[in-house]
Amino acid sequence: MNPLSGDARRAVFAPLDDGAVRSEAVVRRLASAISLGLLADGERLPSEAELAVSLHVSTMTLREALADLRQRGLVVTRRGQRGGSFVQSSPEAVLGLTRARLQALGTVDLRELGDVRSAVSGTAAQLAAVRSTEREVQRLREILARLGEAASPTEQRRLDSRYYVEVAAASQSVRLTMHEIELHTEVGQIPWAMSDAPERVHLVVAAQHRVVDAIAARDATAARSLTERHLAERTTWLVALRRQLLQSGSETVPAPEDRRVAAR
What's the CATH class of domain 99-256? Predict the structure, then answer.
């Protein structure tokens, strides 16, 4: 996969300010970028000193986070002149993140997440229609071409996430791009909503092509409305998939709504 655009990469390594325990915030940011394919398998991370400064954390905090990522199987550290920390995106590690996230989210959570995605991604598409360059539009078309040809659900999800992050980057807003990455932290760690109906990938690509066409035509209103409409439909697919998975494996994945009722 081609490297991230400059704005998207700056968002991945932007300073943390989410109020979480610092090492946990670093783990969440980098694990999400890895699971979404924003950081490629085998990619070398910046040095510990550079990464600590970039994320605005201490070197000790960063080392704790890297140790956690190594334990999860997402990063490997090598010593020596050509050493450093490298992305190691194993399917087993990503699957572990997926199961954990599914347990934490309920139907209401997914719907609210869809609402926020529509707001953020819709705004990003609207601004991209005003601010994007021809090169950025071409990058989006290339991503969609690869998405249409991708064979595995993992690659499909990564390219889909990459599309939304690059649309946000094309809006020329690092903060919007950071918000998009954070949202895909939520979406990227639950099952791929197209896995139960592979033909939906073609519907996704067609819908996203319409958005890119609107961006290229500088039609900001259409770019936003098309994005919002498509994400509303995908939220419906995701809620249906969650119910299906809970029904097939309810003994191992308790529904959050059921736990709320039991706690009353």
Answer: mainly alpha
Rounded to whole angstroms, how far apart are CA atoms 67 and 28?
A: 13
Residue 20 has pLDDT above 70, yes or no: no
CB count in 10 Å sphere of residue 262: 8
Give Cβ neighbours of residue 22 (< 8 Å, ≥ 6 apart).
Answer: 16, 57, 58, 61
CB 255 within 8 A of CB 105: no
Contact between 205 and 148 under an 8 Å Cβ cutoff? The reply is yes
Q: For residue 96, what are its two tokens?
A: 């572990």
Q: Is the pLDDT of residue 52 over 50?
A: yes
CATH domain 6-93 topology: Arc Repressor Mutant, subunit A (1.10.10)
Residue 82: its pLDDT value, please?
78
Contact between 93 and 73 (Cβ < 8 Å): yes
CA dihedral 96, 101, 168, 227 (to 10 degrees): 120
Rg of the chain over Cα atoms, rounded to whole angstroms, equals: 18
Residue 258, pLDDT score:
37
